[in-house]
Amino acid sequence: MCTLAAEETSSWLMIDPWEAFQNYQRTAVVLDHFDYEINMILGGVHTQDGEHRDVRIMLLAGSDLISTMSEPGVWAVEDLDHILGQYGTFIIERAGSSMDQATDNLARWRNNIHLIPQLIQNDVSSTKVRLFLRRGLSVRYLLPSAVVDYIEENDLYLDDGSNSEKEKGKGKDNGLGKREDVTM
Q1: What is the SS3 assignment for the chain?
Q2: Where is the sequence biased in composition, kind Basic and acidic residues (predicted)?
Q3: How many Å is the Cα radius of gyration of the chain?
Q4: Is residue 150 domain-shared with residue 170, that is, in the same domain?
């Protein structure tokens, strides 16, 4: 789905499917993987004047995820030190999440935490998209069309783990926020 979204909306984004083909990996391990692949295997980047530079790998996350980092016991301190100390993060503000409170609790890594304020109210998240789909609501115009088509073609997120059309609430999104019954 990320590849479909990038193909439809960008000519300069690259998608690496490595994480999707792994069993669960901690965020620190994923960042280490990309650091190795980009800086060691690919050799970083080469500037127009021929200079070689390593790429700085950083975590991009919504403020809702970052707020979990400030909750005791949710993240291992060693992982936080690795993620925020070695790599750093860009935090995108999300409605309903307090960036100040989250970053206050992560003050130790303040120099590696960069806040991106939300200039236009947008609280679309993968959690909300899945919830909309389970409730039979349309996600068209929230996601790139190719991603919506893929989700519909594969009947994704209609129910928590169920594969039967009857249990999924039948049908496909007609793009207008309504479900159309499908005859099998």
Answers
A1: CHHHHHHHHCCCCCCCCCHHHCCCCCHHHHHHHHHHHHHHHCCCEECCCCCEECCCCCEEEEHHHHHHHCCCCCCCHHHHHHHHHHHCEEEECCCCCCHHHHHHHCHHHHHHEEEECCCCCCCCCHHHHHHHHHCCCCCECCECHHHHHHHHHCCCCCCCCCCCHHHHCCCEECCCCCEECCCC
A2: 163-184
A3: 20
A4: yes
Judge if 152 and 107 occupy the same domain.
Answer: no
- In this prediction the pTM is 0.71
Write the pLDDT tens digit of every residue in 162-177: 443 433 344 444 343 4
Q: What is the pLDDT of residues 61-106, one digit of tens each?
A: 888 888 889 888 899 999 999 999 999 999 988 777 777 777 888 8
How much is the mean pLDDT over the chain? 82
Q: Please, are residues 173 and 152 in contact by the beta-carbon 8 Å criterion?
A: yes
For residues 109 and 132, membership in a common domain is answered with no
Q: Find the angle CA(97)-CA(98)-CA(102) to the nearest 5 degrees.
A: 110
Domain extent, residue 154, equals 126-180
What is the count of structural domains for the chain? 2
